[in-house]
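USER: Please consider what follows.
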Amino acid sequence: MNFCKRYNIWLITILSVFMLFGCNTEKVDVEGTPPTSEQMIEKFTITAMREGKLEMVLKAESAVVDESKNVAHLKFPVIKFYNEGNYLSTFVAESADISMSSYDIKGNGKCTVDSANNEHLQTVDLMYSEKEGLIYSNNPVKIIRPGEKVYGTSFRSDTKLNKMVIKNQRISID
């Protein structure tokens, strides 16, 4: 009988301690939690038109839109540039950030541009200025054209790859 009393006292003590420390009576204020400024979008697309003519089509596997900074962080973006509806080139990057107000794009990692003139550009961290209509990088660049390869330490060009400035260039003719 003495054992039963001790057993009951221990059981009541353990249950009391569990109820005192184990149960959280604090309520979480869900409505008071600030909303996040990010949204995730799968199959992200932006189409830019000027005077009814196609200027740019940007497609990405996914995007995280940071509304507080007005920037979209893109995964595997493909950007096609047009001039008055005519295809100029395609810019591809591993990832990119696009300003949702200016449409300026910063390609991160390996970037390529393929033009309608059968030119292929390779570089790292490529920038696109929508206002100026220019692409540029301060990193080494390689341009492959039919019959030649051009190497440089940096470049600046229009999106058609026609008006190009390449610093410290050297040419390899096939």
Remarks:
- The radius of gyration is 29 Å.
- The helical segments are 2-22.
- The chain has one domain: 38-173.
- The first strand starts at residue 38 and ends at 50.
